[in-house]
Amino acid sequence: MTHILALDQGTTSSRAILFNAQGSTVHTAQLEFKQIFPQLGWVEHDPLEIWQTQLQVMKQVLAKADPDKAVAAIAITNQRETTVLWDRQTGQPLANAIVWQDRRTVEYCHALRQQGHQALIQEKTGLVLDSYFSGTKLAWLLENIPGARSRAERGELAFGTIDSWLVWNLTKGKTHVTDPSNASRTLLFNLHTLAWDDELLALFNIPRSLLPKVVPSSGVVAHTEPTLLGRAIPIASMIGDQQAATFGQACFEPGMAKNTYGTGCFMLLNTGHQPVASQNQLLTTIGWQRPESSAQPVAPTQPARIAQAESGNHTSALVTTYCLEASVFMGGATVQWLRDGLNIISSAYEIEALAASVPDVADTYLVPAFTGLGAPIWDGNARGTLIGMTRGTTKAHIARAALEAIALQVADVFDAMAKDSGIALAELRVDGGAAKNDLLMQMQADFLGVPVVRPKITETTALGAAYLAGLAVGLWFSTKDIATQWSIDRRFEPHMAAAGRQAKLARWHQALERSKGWAT
Ligand code: ADP
Fold it and tell me: Is any ligand 1 atom within 6 A of the Cβ of residue 333?
């Protein structure tokens, strides 16, 4: 029992990754599934296709695996906020899942804001009243699927985010659970009491009978139904994707932060065991909840730990870790725009050499507010702006300005996090597709004034979930074991002097001002 099978159920594909006890990838499989766009601004997934693709990739990986090194546990990480409503009797979804990107409840959120509910919601949930989160999506399903509300009131239906949906199917309907990291993205979960909140349920008109039981992010919650995979395998972790990446980056102490450079950028900062309310429009969210056993002085033998974990006989208390979170809408997507919109590069990889062919941006700034600006500015009417060009400006300057724009947006968010938390952040751990770009990472270190650290394993989302499961079944004993496995590929030290950094950020903020309020 030396391996963990991590399920990474993402927005565009379902993946399964087998990790060994060193935290290295042994086998992987991946299947894409349909993105459904029924109307402008609507995004749906077929929940049955999500489940079928996930089951297939699990089977593919298990078929490749060495049977002598059996799987000790299954770990689950998932696209967050995506909302599924299903029949408890038949397990059939009542409708397609409403995906986190879906904007159909924008007006409903606007109406709730007009009624003055934002402050209560922020205080209780740490979130902003936005269609991004599950609560208004679930309310929409109950209002718009014929019969759904009365059936929900009779206790016939179940709601879940994708973690819940996968566990329900893995146990053939025996287990309806979620973890606090996923629950904290629904608008229905109280960050302080760590429970579903009656006042919020009343506000969104959600019957309590729909809700899953909230269980720790790390711990054996159920076993897979034996006929699915040939034997009953413990399901030992559930965690939302960005929180999983934070755990996979071994950000275990308050003040440790990671940034993922994907399509957008997602930064999470561990703020310790108390929620920190944001003054800068960042989100407060639950990182993970797990038993922390400071009381256990010596490591028990592995089989004993597995028995203890499986019996649920934890000797230690559950501890909840909170995070501040910020997202930048246009991260690597800015590079995609240079490739697909401007055609000045033919692959994302080429941007590094093109940008490096000039020594600086020659005072040119690209504000990639293509879909407005997110944290910490929040201007939905801001639009993309390219400013400071002269006759000498070339595509190389624009490429360099694009990379700088990613790093400058992240620097603003990093600064907001430091202000909100009162913590002087010592370094930033990075992952995601664009973190491969050395020039971008050096710019990032320069604009932050702290080192940027890229680990050897950048598969951090699946790895974080695997670590949480492995801790539950005794493959790893403590987060110290994991922190020693986390190893550095490259560390980028800041080279820019403080005065230069301040001047750079001040000029960038001037450019940001020019982009605001353009759309009407
Ligand atoms: P996601 O999970 O959001 O699909 P990934 O982590 O796979 O994103 O990263 C893909 C993004 O990274 C794309 O937006 C792409 O433009 C960008 N990207 C990939 N390689 C590079 C690179 N060498 N330099 C800059 N950006 C890159």
Answer: yes
